[in-house]
Amino acid sequence: MGYKAQFRVWRGDDESGELRDYVIEVNEGEVVLDIIHRLQATQAPDLAVRWNCKAGKCGSCSAEINGKPRLMCMTRMSTFTEDEVITVTPMRTFPVVRDLVTDVSFNYTKAREVQSFTPPPDLKPGEYRMQQVDVERSQEFRKCIECFLCQNTCHVIRDHEENKEAFSGPRFLMRVAELEMHPLDTADRRDAAQDEHGLGYCNITKCCTEVCPEHIKITDNALIPMKERVAGRRYDPVVWLGNKLFRRSSKKS
Amino acid sequence: MTAGINAPGRARIPVRSLRTDRWWLPPLITNLGLATFVIYATVRSFMGEWYWVDDYHYLTPFYSPCISESCVPGSAHFGEWIGELPGWIPMGFLALPFLLGFRLTCYYYRKAYYRSVWQSPTACAVAEPHAKYSGETRFPLILQNVHRYFFYVAGIVAVINTYDAIVAFHSPDGGFGMGLGNVILLINVIMLWAYTLSCHSCRHIAGGRLKHFSAHPVRYKLWTFVSKLNVRHMQLAWITLGTLMLTDLYVMLVASGAISDLRFV
Ligand code: SF4
Ligand code: SF4
Ligand code: FES
């Protein structure tokens, strides 16, 4: 039951570009990425698009479909009506390379800025032992496929280019939370979360959670718990007094 | 619009958003909902009457605890600690600022009003109307970090509301009595507890702050319980705005004589 769909695809580079109209055949069971591939094969051989797995696991095909940040390979054509115009653009937070391909190196820079896993110095690889309940929280965050849709949607940097310097974005604040909650990590990451990764910029408006294709509860399970940990260290006079009086190190718990 | 999506190097798309759904609807509904509550609560808090039903000992949560000599006889459950209040001070002045603070710094309400009132962002992937943004990094918004203290006080107020709901099982002859008002007060107090305990700070305090759950099995259970409630935090935030208004409205109608309480016992 094929039909002809109307597409508007952004074509251009880092200097100029425009939305171009195409009419393309759609067959049953297809996803947006199939249509983009058909467009490339039939009408626009020079169309640039990044993809790999077509199974929602490599995180390459991130784009914006009708203004919503999504994976092209996981967006079914059946979610649109046949007479709907479908607009496909590259992610609007990162510099564009060409057409639907953006330069996501911002994210790699931010990834490198997170202090790596820091196990106790006397523990050799292979000797790591931990209990399931203790790693559970961190494991949720390991489902991340690094599609950077959350980074792209976060208004802190999407709407304010100048904040890119100070803010690591939900993906990497979640990485900090993952290690902070890790049973074998010995580093105290609370100050770094606030001072180096810009946790304070996040106003917990949950757009990262809304677009995550892995349905990770980024805001509720990583960002807010991290904000609470920072509050405990920096903004809680009672915790501060307790630590002074009882010489308690809050790291041990 | 903002400098962000038009920043050099990004795809040149001269519109704020290409979203085709009604992304403006949820923030609009949120604004209407919050405004309704704020207006209702303000009017009622300053009204100064119809907050206590002497026959059945119903006290509206907006006037609890009532601790001044202005309170009508019987409504001051914990005594009259201070003299008459001028009319511009609400009789619930002791708890109200803390309850307001608890909700203002609540992680859910923050999301709600940042999106709807402040439009930062109005909706996901819709450019916000502000040129600059520093989030919660500096004064005054850095004060949101004190949320846990408001949580502690909200817990105390929930105990007081629970007490109010229990002493309200009262009949005009002095013995046990029960009416529709009791059911309403009770549902309200249960919902208030659910909202208060589902708080993100509560989740942190209950066990979220620990690194090793395996070493603290009881706190792990507590954290698991609070986590289950926490998933419903948004729903509970709205439900309690509703139950608070309904409870107060019912007490007001009965106290003013507009309706009579439906009595079961
Ligand atoms: S919740 Fe925080 S990190 Fe996530 S999109 Fe909103 S502001 Fe960005
Ligand atoms: S957290 Fe979710 S949205 Fe963000 S990069 Fe990972 S998979 Fe993508
Ligand atoms: S092609 Fe791999 S996630 Fe879409």
UniProtKB/TrEMBL annotation, chain A:
Its cofactor is [3Fe-4S] cluster; [4Fe-4S] cluster; [2Fe-2S] cluster. Keywords: 2Fe-2S, 4Fe-4S, Iron, Iron-sulfur, Metal-binding, Oxidoreductase. Residues 5-92 form the 2Fe-2S ferredoxin-type domain. It holds the Pfam family Fer2_3. The keyword Iron-sulfur applies. SUPFAM superfamilies: 2Fe-2S ferredoxin-like (SSF54292), alpha-helical ferredoxin (SSF46548). The keyword Signal does not apply. Pathway: Carbohydrate metabolism; tricarboxylic acid cycle. PANTHER family: SUCCINATE DEHYDROGENASE [UBIQUINONE] IRON-SULFUR SUBUNIT, MITOCHONDRIAL, SUCCINATE DEHYDROGENASE IRON-SULFUR PROTEIN. Belongs to the succinate dehydrogenase/fumarate reductase iron-sulfur protein family. This is Succinate dehydrogenase iron-sulfur subunit.
From TrEMBL, chain B:
The chain crosses the membrane at residues 23-43, 88-109, 149-169, 175-195, 236-259. Keywords: Membrane, Transmembrane, Transmembrane helix. It comes from the Bacteria. This is Succinate dehydrogenase (Membrane anchor subunit). It comes from Kibdelosporangium persicum. The lineage of its organism: Bacteria, Bacillati, Actinomycetota, Actinomycetes, Pseudonocardiales.
